[in-house]
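Hi there,

I know you've been waiting on this one. I reran it after we fixed the sequence typo, so this is the corrected version. Both the input and the resulting structure follow.
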Amino acid sequence: MLTLENAIPNIPLPARYRGTNILNPIYVIKTERRKHRKSHGKISFVELSKKIAQNWNNSDKGVKDFFKELSEKDYERYKSDLKRSKDYDASAARLTADNGIPS
């Protein structure tokens, strides 16, 4: 299981997250759609987003720095994946143009 501690070893983990079993947010993304759930009505989306923004603004510098570094590393991974995909598409197009015979 990928945890924040072993996801990106060169980024220091904030003290409040050390020793927890929080999954790495980069690898938790699910690709399938979830089933529709009826809203509980306890909190609206607007109130929820305001609460999340307030918690983010009140969090300490170490937590913000950690997640900013994590997002930078994920963006680098995204760029390399995109480049690899474009390289693959270009080589596949060359093979198709040459009737499958590599040059």
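Quick highlight: The radius of gyration is 21 Å.

Best,
R. S.
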